[in-house]
Write a structure and sequence with these properties.
Elements lengths: L1 E4 L9 E4 L2 H12 L6 E6 L6 H11 L6 H9 L5 E6 L2 E6 L5 H5 L5 E2 L5 E3 L2 E7 L7 E7 L1 H14 L5 H9 L7 H20 L29
Parallel strand pairs: 2-4
Antiparallel strand pairs: 1-2, 3-5, 3-6, 4-5, 7-8, 8-9
Helix pairs in contact: 5-7
Length: 228
């Protein structure tokens, strides 16, 4: 669930907190990376520190709560804008290109989505060239390599040991949301399971055992209500 804390007027959320990493990734894809926030810093709230106090300190330090009108003027002047998000004790600062103290203060920790995917909640989020049009880039969300390989190993191990219904239930319960790259990965998992079962003379699982879950976005770009 998204939990924004708003101020009056055109001042954007002072901070945006997420209970779910899935909602965080959805928000990044729909409202952050695609809007030019290609640079990021990730960190953890230190043990014993109040997360709300850390939020306030970083937001003030990097001017992450500017009105939209001010952000627009900064962009026109070649200056960067910064946004702040947090999930649990993990916080993120996102910046557009341009001049900003963030790049000097956090020089050793600034990453670029175009070169270094952000790994969060089992996902890998990057900004890649479009496979059909190399002059364009798109937000690319996939299951990160480690959890994907763990899923593959587990499903291949159980492919001939569990019933078709039990395997279908496992595939259907995979929690990752159905971005296009994720859908491709889920289909590859299903093919791997069916290949094992075919060699063992067992029945094949249908594609409809995959759940391509992706909740709708509201007009503002934030995740909509969760589906039951």
């Amino acid at each position: 669930m998204i939990n924004p804390e708003h101020s009056r007027g055109d001042l954007p959320a002072q901070r945006i907190l997420f209970d779910s990493p899935h909602d965080l990734v959805q928000y990044l894809a729909a409202s952050v990376v695609c809007r030019g926030y290609w640079f990021y810093v990730a960190g953890l709230v230190p043990a014993g520190k109040d997360p709300a106090a850390v939020d306030a300190k970083l937001i003030a330090k990097y001017a992450a709560n500017l009105p939209n009108s001010t952000r627009w003027r900064r962009k026109k002047a070649g200056r960067a804008n910064v946004r702040y998000l947090r999930h649990g004790r993990r916080f993120f600062l996102f910046a557009t290109k341009g001049d900003h103290p963030l790049f000097a203060e956090e020089a050793g920790g600034v990453r670029d989505f175009r070169q270094h995917p952000l790994r969060v909640g089992g996902y890998s989020v990057s900004f890649r060239r479009d496979g059909r049009d190399q002059s364009r880039r798109r937000v690319h969300v996939r299951i990160d390599e480690t959890p994907y390989r763990e899923l593959l190993a587990s499903l291949e191990h159980h492919a001939t040991r569990l019933s078709a219904d039990a395997l279908a239930a496992r595939l259907y319960a995979i929690p990752y949301r159905g971005y296009a790259p994720v859908r491709g990965q889920l289909c590859r998992l299903l093919r791997a399971v069916n290949a094992r079962r075919k060699r063992a003379g067992l029945s094949q699982l249908p594609k409809d055992c995959l759940f391509f879950h992706r909740p709708p976005l509201s007009a503002g770009g934030t995740p909509g209500p969760k589906s039951a």
